[in-house]
C-alpha cells in the first residue's frame, strides 16, 4: 500500500526537499520557513507583502538556506497556478505544498454580505483547492508522490460566534480534505490538515472587523460568561510551537495535526456534547449584583 488512511511513510531527511509555503511573510508561515531552511530544504515563499517576503527570504539565506520568493494573491486561481510554475522554474518539481495563507472576519452571520462570504471561502478554502489542482494533478501524471498540508483552525471543527464566514470556510476545508484523502488513496500523495488554536501572530490585528462600531454587539459579547472550554481554546500558543508540529508532520505524514492539545480537547468535546456546551455558552455572565 503506497499510502492510506494512516500514512505509513516517513520522510526522515528533509534536506533538498522543495517546499512551497503560502502566507510566508509573517506568523506561522515565516517561522515554518525559518525552521525548514535550517533543515536544508529549498523553499519557495509567497504572500502578498513583497518587502516582508524579501526580508524573511534574506534571513533564511543568511542562515545558509536556499530560498526564493514571489508575491501571490491566493484568492485568485490563476495566481496560484502561476506560483506553482514559478516554483518549478527555480527549484524543480515541488515535493511539499503548505497552504498556510488565510484570514478572518468578525461579523454577525445574519447580516453577512455575499462579498464577505466569498472572500472568506476564496481565502480559507478555495485557495487550497487550487493548490491541489496545481500540484497534485502533475504528481499523479508523473506517477510520483508528494505532500499537501492545509493549515486550518479549530474553528474548522467547532464554530464560534461572530466568526461565521471564517468558520464556515474552515469547516468546508476540513470536509474537502476528508474527501481528497480518500480520492488520493494509493497514489503516494498525502494530505495533512493542521488545526491550530489561537496563535501569537498577526491574525487578530489583520482581522476584518464589521462590528467595530456596533455597541450593541459589544454589550452582548460582554454579557456572556466564557465557559471553561472557551478559555482553553483562547489560550495562545507560540508560532514556533505550531511550526514545529508542521515540520514533524512533513517528516512523518499523518492525516491530522492538533498543535494545541487543549484546543483539540475542547473542539472534540464540542462535537461530542454540543447541547451541554452550547447551554454553557448561553448562560449570562455573573455580576456583583448576583450576590455570588
How many domains make up the coordinates?
1
* Overall pLDDT: 86
* CATH architecture classification name: 3-Layer(aba) Sandwich
Write down the overall geometry: globular
* CA-based gyration radius: 20 Å
By CATH, the superfamily comes out as NAD(P)-binding Rossmann-like Domain
CATH-assigned fold name: Rossmann fold
Percent range for β-strand residues: 5-15%
Q: Which stretches are low in confidence, meaning pLDDT under 50 for 5 or more residues running?
A: 1-5, 287-292
Structure characterization notes:
- The chain is of the alpha/beta class and 292 residues long.
- It has one domain: 3-Layer(aba) Sandwich (Rossmann fold), CATH 3.40.50.
- It contains 11 helices and 9 strands.
- The protein has helices at 27-38, 50-62, 77-91, 114-142, 164-183, 203-206, 215-223, 228-233, 239-251, 261-272, 274-281; strands spanning 18-22, 42-47, 66-71, 96-99, 105-106, 146-151, 189-194, 208-209, 256-257.
- The chain has a 7-stranded parallel beta sheet, with helices on both faces.
- The termini are far apart.
Amino acid at each position: 500500500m503506497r499510502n492510506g488512511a494512516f500514512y505509513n511513510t516517513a520522510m526522515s531527511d528533509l534536506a533538498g526537499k522543495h517546499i512551497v509555503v503560502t502566507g510566508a511573510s509573517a506568523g506561522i508561515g515565516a517561522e515554518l520557513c525559518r525552521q525548514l531552511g535550517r533543515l536544508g530544504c529549498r523553499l519557495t515563499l509567497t504572500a502578498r507583502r513583497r518587502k516582508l517576503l524579501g526580508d524573511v527570504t534574506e534571513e533564511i539565506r543568511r542562515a545558509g538556506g536556499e530560498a526564493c520568493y514571489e508575491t501571490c494573491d491566493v484568492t485568485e486561481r490563476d495566481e496560484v497556478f502561476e506560483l506553482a510554475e514559478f516554483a518549478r522554474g527555480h527549484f524543480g518539481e515541488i515535493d511539499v505544498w503548505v497552504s498556510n495563507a488565510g484570514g478572518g472576519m468578525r461579523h454577525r452571520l445574519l447580516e453577512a454580505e455575499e462579498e464577505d462570504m466569498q472572500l472568506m471561502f476564496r481565502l480559507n478554502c478555495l485557495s487550497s483547492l487550487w493548490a491541489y489542482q496545481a500540484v497534485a494533478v502533475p504528481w499523479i501524471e508523473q506517477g510520483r508522490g508528494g505532500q499537501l498540508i492545509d493549515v486550518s483552525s479549530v474553528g474548522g471543527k467547532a464554530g464560534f460566534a461572530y466568526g461565521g464566514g471564517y468558520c464556515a470556510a474552515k469547516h468546508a476545508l476540513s470536509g474537502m480534505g476528508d474527501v481528497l484523502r480518500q480520492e488520493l488513496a494509493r497514489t503516494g500523495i498525502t494530505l495533512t490538515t493542521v488545526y491550530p488554536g489561537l496563535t501569537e501572530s498577526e491574525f487578530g490585528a489583520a482581522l476584518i472587523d464589521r462590528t467595530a462600531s456596533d455597541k450593541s454587539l459589544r454589550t452582548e459579547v460582554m454579557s456572556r460568561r466564557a465557559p471553561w472550554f472557551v478559555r482553553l481554546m483562547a489560550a495562545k500558543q507560540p508560532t514556533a510551537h505550531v511550526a514545529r508540529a508542521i515540520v514533524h508532520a512533513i517528516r512523518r505524514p499523518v492525516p491530522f495535526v492538533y498543535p494545541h492539545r487543549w484546543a483539540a480537547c475542547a473542539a472534540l468535546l464540542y462535537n461530542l456534547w454540543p447541547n451541554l456546551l452550547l447551554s454553557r455558552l448561553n448562560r449570562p455572565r455573573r455580576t456583583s449584583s448576583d450576590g455570588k
